[in-house]
Amino acid sequence: MPPGTVRGVRQRFAASALNYRVLRLLGSRLPRVTRGWMPWVGLDRYAAIGLPGPGWVRLRPILAGVCGTDIALLTGRTSAVLSPFSSFPAVLGHEVVGLVDEVGDEVAGFAPGDRVVLDPVLACVVRGLSPCRWCADGHPGLCLRTAEGSLAPSPMIGFSRDLPGGWSDELVAHVTQLHAVPAGMSDETAVMVEPFSVALHAVLATPPAAGERAVVIGGGTMGLCVTAALRLVAPDVEVTVVARYPAQRTMAERFGAGVASDPLQAAVARAGAQRHRPLVGDDVLIGGFEQIYDCVGTARSLDASLRVAAPRGRVAIVGGPAVIRDLDWTLAWTRELRIEGSYVYGTEHGMPGAPHTMDAAMRLLADHPELPLGELVTHRFGLEDWRGAMATALDRGRAGALKIAFVPGTAGDRRAARR
């Protein structure tokens, strides 16, 4: 084990029914009032971790993004359904661009100083197991053994008590989790590769055809990444983004999309739908969008997704909803909608050469430097200012924030320079 200690922003307590109930009770109320302070989170020092084996590397994070999943976990908005497959306390952070600091004896293709993007998924090979059927087919996000092997249960780095994430001075990863960053790509664009890969995977799974109309519900990081992915792989599709805040609408327009503030009005104005008034509740539409990407994952957004879909329309759920109560599913069956979930990334069998989503994402972004994906990184924070990062994440609209990132090893700044 290397000498010394490492700093990391850690969710401090272990998962338990009591802790889960506390988070559900307090939710985002306490950090909103206390400017980001959460008693269950802190900047801690812990012993540096040795390389778990000869196929592992040590990374020094350059930028580590704050994901909506992280905030949902820290504010008690996640479901307990997946709790058997995570382990805490954990240092968070799974959106990482970093430098290789140390390599194991069996690592090939990477050397100290190389800049890489991390695939945080902890599937069979990383766990020292032979591939399950899903891993063998290139879908590690569907791994059947995330609670087995040499590591504590966890779907990915950042939610594991054994493997600290990128909100830290350093982390370790298996060589199969590394993806080389092109020399000309900015660090800001590179840290966006992980969320952009989630979006690209969703678009490639349900690609709209030329001439169809697509709506992206949600103008946050994921909604804008889906919009960017549509521009790159489906340029002949008319895209509308339903966004709440000015910064979101501005970026959506820069990605070539139309913008709207109300999904039903957008369906009427852009997809020719007709409104009808039910006995109670929001209007019901005839007609609508052929393709819907729900990038919010709330009861309101899912209800809107069902309402604005054309008959046999396709709804891709990208926003990661958890427990949804009182959602009327009538339109799902009376319109014969195709509803599909989407999660992380893997082998894209429909692309030439069947690349990993992250490699495909970096090639697309390198070929289109005019796409301002790196400008989604609007706010940066040093680890010491983790409370400021949490407060900003909980008040994105007022702060004008899109992607928030930690800059480990520096004081950071509250707003990234536009590039």
Characteristic key phrases:
Rossmann fold; globular; Quinone Oxidoreductase, Chain A, domain 1; 2 domains; alpha/beta; six-stranded parallel sheet; 419 residues
Characterize the largest beta sheet: strand count, sense, and whether it forms a barrel: 7 strands, mixed
The CATH architecture of the largest domain = Alpha-Beta Complex
Strand runs, count: 18
Number of domains: 2
> Please, what is the CATH homologous superfamily of the largest domain?
Medium-chain alcohol dehydrogenases, catalytic domain
Given the structure, what is the number of helices? 14
Concise account of the structure shown:
Helix 6 (193-205) packs across helix 7 (221-233) and helix 6 packs across helix 12 (357-367). Strands 3, 5, 6, 7, 8, 17 and 18 form a seven-stranded mixed beta sheet that branches. The protein has a six-stranded parallel beta sheet with strand order 11-10-9-14-15-16, with helices on both faces. A three-stranded antiparallel beta sheet has the order 2-1-4, with no helix packed on it. With 419 residues, it is α/β, with parallel strands linked by helices.
Write the layout of secondary structure elements.
Elements: E1 5-11, H1 17-26, H2 29-33, E2 41-47, E3 56-66, H3 68-74, E4 90-91, E5 95-103, E6 115-118, H4 133-136, E7 171-174, E8 178-180, H5 187-191, H6 193-205, E9 213-217, H7 221-233, E10 238-242, H8 246-254, E11 258-260, H9 263-271, E12 274-276, E13 284-286, E14 289-294, H10 299-307, E15 309-317, H11 330-334, E16 338-341, H12 357-367, E17 377-381, H13 386-394, H14 396-399, E18 403-406
Parallel strand pairs: 9-10, 9-14, 10-11, 14-15, 15-16, 17-18
Antiparallel strand pairs: 1-2, 1-4, 3-5, 3-7, 3-18, 5-6, 6-8, 12-13
Helix pairs in contact: 6-7, 6-12
